[in-house]
């Protein structure tokens, strides 16, 4: 069993509930339950990436506007920026957090971004604050970059050394084009005229930042990707475009399935059944599900998805490598009501019931 966070429940709490629910129905079974992450925004919970990476000590980020936390451990600092799509999207705070993390001199700094989020400043604010030369708060894509942007990028890269910067995100989100950020927002109600203007602004700003990055390469001796790869990469639009800016200062941007694959090493080796527990499933499968599918497929073991809610058609199960889907809160995928503390409080009982149904259906004597 692999357990990702659910509304109001950490991955560890989900794992404990799944274990108890299954053993309550089939007490003689041997279980291998692991906490994983989909690198997604989960109401009243974190993404769970920090637990997979062994960074389990929560600390305050000093001087943060509002209250933010980091997780430390295993020579890592993990910063979780998964959030709802409507949240503010400026990245200056990310730069301040990274500067604080770099002062701790960890081997690796990890930032976690939702694949889809509000369109922001493409990480320009992050570059400014990390370099110690903040950009004007009024700057947005479409406005000219400061003339010394290359110097800011070079300075930001120096601040991060010698730590390695890794970004995990739930899945692909391009910056521009038919699958880019502006087009993604039209599917969520953005007016086509506004989306077209946003696409133009993002294109101009990303080209200018990529050119400044190339100039910074000459100053720092960097060996980063060329401008086209920076702009056209499959994850450049993650976090509302924050991944693009983080890539410019030297981050490697990876899908969370790569971390999940490590966490699930040997997971299905002795299994009769694999279970993956995740949040709501919409247009895209959960970020860590591909790793679970690959593990189960190598051993020819059936894989069942237990998710908060799903808009999947039965015909899509085979394409995703699934043998069954069970909803924890059926129908919620088509319910516009927001998650509240009261609704999240009912998740533990609903999850227990769903896992018990699976145990009764898929168990072997």
Tell me what the structure shows.
- With 365 residues, the protein is of the alpha/beta class.
- Helices cover 39% and strands 13% of the residues.
- The protein is built from 14 helices and 11 strands.
- The protein has a 6-stranded mixed β-sheet, with helices on both faces. It has a 5-stranded parallel β-sheet with strand order 2-1-9-10-11.
- The chain is globular.
Distance between the terminal alpha carbons, to the nearest Å? Answer: 19 Å
Question: What structural category do the secondary elements indicate?
Answer: alpha/beta
Which series of helices and strands comes N to C?
EHEHEEEHEHHEHHHHEHEHEHEHH
The total count of strands amounts to 11
State the shape: globular
β-sheet strand percentage: 5-15%
Overall pLDDT confidence: 90
Biggest sheet, spatial arrangement of strands: 3-4-5-6-7-8
Main sheet record: 6 strands, mixed
Binned, the helix content reads 25-40%
Quick recap of the structure?
This protein is of the alpha/beta class. The protein has helices at 11-25, 49-52, 92-103, 124-131, 149-160, 181-186, 192-220, 227-232, 242-248, 257-263, 289-298, 317-320, 341-345, 347-362; strands at 2-3, 34-35, 57-60, 69-73, 76-80, 108-113, 164-169, 252-255, 274-278, 303-307, 324-327. The protein starts with a strand and ends with a helix.
């Amino acid at each position: 069993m692999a357990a990702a966070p659910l509304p109001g429940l950490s991955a560890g709490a989900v794992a404990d509930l799944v274990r108890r629910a299954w053993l309550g129905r089939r007490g003689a079974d041997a279980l291998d339950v692991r906490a994983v992450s989909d690198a997604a925004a989960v109401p009243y919970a974190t993404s769970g990436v920090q637990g997979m990476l062994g960074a389990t000590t929560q600390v305050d980020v000093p001087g943060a506007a509002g209250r933010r936390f980091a997780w430390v451990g295993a020579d890592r600092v993990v910063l979780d920026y998964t959030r709802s799509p409507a949240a503010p999207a400026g990245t200056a705070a990310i730069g301040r957090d990274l500067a604080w993390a770099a002062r701790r001199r960890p081997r690796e700094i990890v930032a976690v971004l939702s694949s889809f989020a509000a369109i922001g400043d493409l990480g320009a604010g992050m570059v400014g604050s990390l370099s110690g030369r903040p950009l004007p708060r009024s700057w947005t894509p479409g406005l000219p970059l400061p003339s010394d942007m290359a110097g800011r990028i070079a300075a930001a890269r120096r601040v991060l050394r010698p730590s390695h910067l890794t970004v995990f995100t739930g899945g692909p989100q391009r910056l521009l084009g038919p699958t880019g950020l502006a087009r993604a927002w039209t599917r969520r109600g953005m007016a086509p005229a506004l989306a077209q203007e946003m696409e133009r602004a993002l294109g101009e700003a990303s080209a200018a930042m990529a050119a400044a990055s190339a100039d910074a390469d000459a100053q720092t001796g960097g060996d980063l990707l060329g401008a086209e790869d920076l702009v056209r990469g499959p994850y450049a639009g993650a976090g509302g475009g924050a991944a693009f800016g983080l890539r410019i200062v030297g981050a490697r941007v990876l899908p969370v399935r790569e971390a999940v694959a490590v966490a699930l090493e040997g997971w299905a080796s002795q299994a009769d059944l694999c279970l993956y527990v995740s949040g709501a499933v919409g247009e895209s499968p959960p970020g860590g599900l591909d790793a679970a599918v690959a593990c189960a497929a190598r051993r020819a073991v059936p894989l069942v998805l237990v998710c908060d809610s799903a808009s999947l058609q039965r015909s899509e199960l085979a394409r995703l490598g699934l043998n069954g889907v069970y909803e924890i809160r059926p129908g919620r995928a088509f319910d516009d009501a927001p998650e509240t503390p009261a609704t999240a409080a009912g998740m533990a009982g609903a999850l227990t019931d769903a896992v018990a149904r699976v145990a009764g259906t898929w168990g072997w004597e």
